[in-house]
Model the fold of this input.
Amino acid sequence: MENRGRKKRKSQKTKSNRKGCSSSIDGNTIFALMLAAICKSNEPFSEAIIKRCLNSLHLSLTPNSHKDEPRLQTLPVPVLSLLPVLLKSKCDEIVSRSAEIAGAASIFSFEMNEQIALDAGIVKGLILAVGASNKMVSLAACNAVLDLSTTSVGRERLLEFSAVEHLMFKYLQVPESSKRSVAICSLDKGSDICPRIGVKEDDLLVLLLDAVITLINTYDIDRLEKMPRKLSETFSVCLKELWAKVHNQMFLRNTLKFGQDEHANLSSIRTNEMAESIFRLSINAGHLTTPIPFDVVKKSIFGTRESSFENFILNHWEVSPLRIRTCSKALNEQDDVFSSFVQYLNLKKTDSSFVSPVLQGMVSCLPIDSDELNILNFLKTVRNELGCPIIYGQDIRVLRTLGHLKEEVHFFQESSVPCTKAPHFLYIDDVLKCEDAYKKGYTIALRGMEFRLQNIAAIADGLASLFGQPSVGVNLYLTPPNSQGLPCHYDDHCVFVCQLLGTKQWTIASQPVVSLPHLYEPLGNLHSAKTGNSMAGHSQFLLREGDILYIPRGFPHEACTVAESGDPDETTGFSLHLTLAIEVDPPFE
Done:
């Protein structure tokens, strides 16, 4: 069931060509009657007169009322001037009908919408009426706010009078029981990437959600940062809880067809719009990731001696690989920057069942340039794709290296070759296949971990500050026993390999390719004969838990899981490591 406010807004406003009203609807007469009734508010007949006048006005503005009813070409200015008073009435029916008239006028024409928006008394009255204890009044006012928000002028005026804060507060007052049953609905055949969101039983909750998300997604940075911190944080928590339910429905592909569930109140909000609101609220200073100080990152990677980092910069940075041995018990200590991530995974040394739970909670992370300064401009560019399930190739790869030719083989073969086909979104069936693929020797490679977890984002920001570079990308690799994920290749960025669990044998060429690739330079065929031949002279590094390996850009390398002792006859285990990729961007090239 689609909420009634949205049905009304489906007919978009245009400059009205409606014919003038008949003599039975006289705006001046209605104004005079209502003004007299307002002045005689203590008289028993006053409310009845006002109600009858408001009903006549509402019928004259409603496009789907009886065709024989006379129509107003515009809401007379004198009548308009009474709405602020009527919206403060002690009679709920009068307030409700006044809000409905303001809403109907807002979508009658652009001119009327602007008239309503520029009247501060009406805008304030509607916003305050949203918080009314009477549900009928709240519904009418919320509908009117949505009607007014259909133009940029209307949205701006609503923001000016703190409509978002009032809507958030009212939303937080809705009983939690009303927020438990969430549905998603697809209106178009095959269009289930960003379905619409519905809440069962509670139409007010749907309208509030519509209004607050619509307005939040028009906020600029200054307004986002000026929002009351506590209110913003509390609402953000509620929105994330609702998002978890929505995302789970998407992941399980429990998408209803329009009209399939008559108890679901369908909003106009799509899943990508909710994801955008969550993103925007995170911009509020209270939600920003606090970078780990670069000296803490430096100690965690290079040790406590200052000379260790200086020696690395002077002798190894962009020159040669280096294994940095850390304390083997570091991952269990509070001062280690990676320990919280390992605890988050809750991964036992013989258990790989975390694959499905971790993938289930992820959404696609869209590529963003490291030098992007306008985050809201980026949001506008990608808003139609926000919140969608992870995409094969962009967010995840499931692959292994096979045969004496060491060919790269993808578990999802049809999705491994870039082409013009639609993106391969991973839902429940494919995620379960990923776990099965792992058991068959395939490596799970996840990109963009710095966008997915705050503790990883903090490490990445700290490392970027340490090296004076714009950003650090973080990938995760889970490799099963006796297996090799990626074939021999080189990167266009410098890499720190952080071995979190298990053991892995790395083979790195002694020399880089002819010239170090510059940032964003196409690498061409990573598995060319040139790359393979460059491994003739090489060094090997055995990484155990807590070890870190530096690989300069341009150095061909490959890795496979081995026994902890390095003995090929010993039973091998799995390996989990992160790669921290530093985009080396020479400022004057």
Observations:
- The two ends are 59 Å apart (CA to CA).
- DSSP finds 22 helices and 15 strands in the chain.
